[in-house]
Amino acid sequence: MWTNGYIAVDWGTTNRRGYRIGADGRCGGEFEDAKGITGVAPGGFPAAIAEIRERLGDLPLIMAGMVGSNRGWVEAAYVPCPAGPETLARSLTIIAEERAAIVPGLSFADRTRADVMRGEEVQLFGAVASGLVPPDGLVCHPGTHNKWATMENGHVTGFRTVMTGELFSLLGEKSILSQWLGADVEPGPAFRRGVAQGLGGAALTAELFGVRAGVLLGRLAPEDAAPFTSGLLIGADVATGLAGTDHGAGIVVMGRPELTRLYAAALDEAGQQAQEVDGEQAFLAGIAEIAEIVRQLA
Amino acid sequence: MWTNGYIAVDWGTTNRRGYRIGADGRCGGEFEDAKGITGVAPGGFPAAIAEIRERLGDLPLIMAGMVGSNRGWVEAAYVPCPAGPETLARSLTIIAEERAAIVPGLSFADRTRADVMRGEEVQLFGAVASGLVPPDGLVCHPGTHNKWATMENGHVTGFRTVMTGELFSLLGEKSILSQWLGADVEPGPAFRRGVAQGLGGAALTAELFGVRAGVLLGRLAPEDAAPFTSGLLIGADVATGLAGTDHGAGIVVMGRPELTRLYAAALDEAGQQAQEVDGEQAFLAGIAEIAEIVRQLA
């Protein structure tokens, strides 16, 4: 399977990225577009797949992310933590007639809470396999839904999701704050003031309205509203991520650089040094590792 | 001024309610429609006012709410706390050529935070004037932006806004949770479980994603997602409202009955008994009190 190369697709809610990987393991072509799963009409996945093959070649497909969710193409499993790459490779959802496979997601449950992830797990294992992330430690993966994953010996033993990105986006699109939230967010003083409040356990839904009141009463500059609000949410997120986790082995922030630098600044405000890692290479390394395990299993 | 009667308008962001008040102080006609300030085109207020007079009569107008905000018709002041009805009556914004007046809002600021309200202040003073609310105590006024107001001797001495209603609405319209949030919210067991988590200081942005994970993994019934989420947000709101306020003199929840009963249930979960009051009569009593003060001042 996949010995002549394959196409790897990171298929999320609003975006997808495809890569052609040759028999030599090298990336020989790629694209990114806004055809996330919400951009595919019901029954439209076979056509969306054909379009990917037109762009990248007539090769088998291996996909990860929300394409395997209950809103995606075919629902793939969630495998419970603790889990490693071999767990994923043994639980692929195969769509034989389309020469395609979907990587399962991960689930976590204990007495008090439950959680799920899809897509980030491939990056987490790939980052370990390629040496970007140590096999033990805490990994923060910001995005629409930020994930805090505890890694032990290259396995994910637990994780927690915080919907910071989605909430900031909702507030920016349509809320009493939206007129101010379109501004650029830099990790400067206003951002750090927000982080400090979020870290300190501020009442989020009250502090959010406080942004409006602060601007109206001249206590917060309008151009500071976006970085302050972003800092407030990210500060609360970091407080949640650090609570009760053992991060003695180090913290890595993995994802898009414009987000990882905000989280690294917030972690710095919390007295934690974090290493930043770009998630794109980690995805390809993770898919390559899964493909290699499947070859050995076959 | 207003000796032959007047029209009182409670003009909010998404709705408006108008009442014709006769020389005898009685309500002789009313209407409610969805022409909140966001439904009025730029420059459209004189026409919107004319429409109100066509419905209710050619009388002077006294208005309160977001019509006096920076997004409304004419920006009215915010008068700082502590403030009573006479403070509002002395600071009306008069639009003489339209025979109209807008009641100012209230502001609160101390070393750590700032806050604003528009519209609720009229209800607060009216509720005291008509004996619905005691002159001392804590008043919770749920709505798009819930207000917790501390009353002393009939004056508002401080308040805090929590944007619970707006956040629940945003999540219901367009978020990873929206498919489940359209269900009815009753103050039953799922609501109370959410309240308990919110009261206990749960990490809101993490617990919100936990709703999705809980449903996907079968730990939360889909029909419980809406009441649980509402309870979570209202519980956090109540924790904020009770923190650091002196409510020994009693708590009143004033507003629309479908909201006051949820807040009363959440307060009960927090071990606090609250009295529920309908806000509509309080608004008319508040406007009547302001009109009477203006008559005495004139």
Task: Report on this structure.
The structure is a homodimer of 298-residue chains. With 298 residues, chain A is an alpha/beta fold. Chain A has 9 helices and 14 strands. The longest helix of chain A has 21 residues, at 222-242.
Present the secondary structure layout:
Two copies of one chain form a homodimer.
Chain A: E1 6-11, E2 16-21, E3 27-33, H1 45-56, E4 61-65, E5 78-80, H2 85-90, E6 93-95, E7 100-102, E8 105-109, E9 114-117, H3 120-129, E10 137-141, E11 146-152, E12 155-162, H4 164-173, H5 189-199, H6 204-216, H7 222-242, E13 251-255, H8 257-269, E14 274-278, H9 279-297
Parallel strand pairs in A: 1-4, 4-7, 5-8, 10-13, 13-14
Antiparallel strand pairs in A: 1-2, 2-3, 6-7, 8-9, 10-11, 11-12
Helix pairs in contact in A: 3-9, 5-7, 6-7, 7-8
Task: Provide a short characterization of the protein structure.
2 copies of one chain form a homodimer. Helix content of chain A is 39%, strand content 24%. Chain A contains 9 helices and 14 strands.
